[in-house]
Design brief:
Blueprint: E1 34-37, E2 42-46, E3 59-61, E4 81-83, E5 90-92, E6 104-107, H1 119-127, H2 140-143, E7 153-157, E8 160-162, E9 169-170, E10 175-178, E11 185-189, E12 200-203, E13 209-211, E14 214-217, E15 225-232, E16 238-240, E17 243-246, E18 255-262, E19 267-270, E20 273-277, E21 284-291, E22 295-298, E23 301-305, E24 311-318, E25 331-333, E26 336-339, E27 349-356
Amino acid sequence: MSVVDLKSLVIFDKSIVLSNSGEIQDNNGQSGQLRFNHNILKFEGYHSNAGADIFGNIWRPLTQDVASTSNLGVIRVGNNLLINPTTGILSAVASGESRIYQLVITVSPILNAADFQTINAAISNAIGTPAGGYIDGSVTSNIGSPPSAIYPFVIQLGPGQYSEALNQIVLPDYVSLKGEDNYNSVITQNAGNVNITTGSMIILGQNCAINNLVVNLADTSSSQVSNALYSLNKSNVTIDSCIFTCNTNINTTSTMYNIVINGGTNNKISNSQFIMKNNNAITNIKCLDITNTSLSILNNSFDISIPNATNSTAIQLNNCNDTESILDKTYIDGITISNNYYSTVSGKTNYGISLYDS
């Protein structure tokens, strides 16, 4: 057995064992004394009455559990609290209650600032998937219904820049997408695709409203088609107070659109701006391409400055033949169009409004 000099620094090459006899322990001790408490299976230190914790414990654990009403311990900082890593001071941040069960889903590009960080995550997680009939989301499964006239959903975007890995957002029927006022919510499409169905950034559903968004086309992959919004045989679609634009270096090769609507009734495009400026040689530019439907186009402005486009059109109507009722007519009012007004490039065709069988 080795002799330990109790007045010198002692180094143990292996370890030491405390309180291994199994005897019943009491509260007696001396300041600086250590023991292993077999009742709670923790190491403790004796602190005397002067060093007791707020519960009067003079033997205090050297390690901590999660804090509770009866136990001093470790806490974790929640999302609505900020901790200064230098001082350890917590500051409360006002955090409103989520409205997700009111069918208003919030999205923000800032981590933990809203219900979700991307639009597609909001749809797939809260509303569900097409394969599940849009009743397999956390909210739709709770209400027992997909989005409907009784349960319409709103996806509310906070301020910021948005892009999606798939470069496409498919909105189910009765789901609206709204941004913050003053055009502070910007959605960018970074790549188009081979046709209007795959090359559209946002596919609209029935009874859908698009409000206060900026949709920017920024294809850099030489796609055949780039488009912001696409509606196929959907009715009661409202697009209001939006800006549609494109990057100056976009290189879509065939056709660039802003809004394509084919079929459906009672649709409306209002109070929006179409600002298309680019110097690349794109074949076709069509801000609005409307087919087989009637709709209202009210108080919109079109500013096209793409002089190297072979054909550029602000509004094109295709086969928009309706009944004799004035309510079923395509109605255009309060628009301003500037289409390559200052262009000196010859051999190009610029249309304001183009009508085909309409």
